[in-house]
Amino acid sequence: RPWLGQAAFQLLARSRVDRWFRYAMADATRAPALATLARTALDHGACFCLPSLFQQYLDPRQAPPPVPTLPTLLVAGLADRSHAATDWNRASAGGRDVTRVLLEGVGHFPDLE
């Protein structure tokens, strides 16, 4: 339902931040520091846009996202439990020139971890 997911996640975002970082990071001891930063961002007007993303790309009435025509770098942490079932070969199959970097011992945020 348009707006329902966005509104629910915006209301619940602060209460979900700690759990999300602990779940998605390889080293859960680093999660509290990032959760504090995330709550500060939310306090200053940031949004949690995940529901909008899924509404856009899972709606069968919407056109699929465009296939990248430029070389693409896909970086993923293999210790991310939220993507444990992801087939990284399939996830990178849509591009023309995709380089995959799959990192052991890294979670959802390779750039931060």
Index terms:
113 residues, alpha+beta, two-stranded parallel sheet, 4 helices, globular
Outline the low-pLDDT stretches: none
Order of helices and strands: HHHEHE
Strand order of the largest sheet: 1-2
Gross morphology is globular
Mean pLDDT across every amino acid position: 85
Number of helices: 4
The computed structural class is: alpha+beta
Helix content: 40-55%
Based on DSSP secondary structure assignment, what is the total number of beta strands?
2
Q: What kind of sheet is the major sheet?
A: 2 strands, parallel
| Gyration radius from CA atoms, angstroms | 16 Å
* First-to-last CA distance: 34 Å
**Residues in β-strands, percent:** 5-15%
Could you characterize the architecture of this molecule?
- The protein contains four helices and two strands.
- It is α+β, with helices and mostly antiparallel strands.
- The mean pLDDT is 85.
Topology:
Layout: H1 4-24, H2 31-43, H3 50-58, E1 72-77, H4 88-91, E2 98-103
Parallel strand pairs: 1-2
Helix pairs in contact: 1-2
Compact summary:
The protein has four helices and two strands; from the N terminus they run αααβαβ. The protein has helices at residues 4-24, 31-43, 50-58, 88-91, and strands spanning 72-77, 98-103. β1 (72-77), α4 and β2 form a beta-alpha-beta unit.
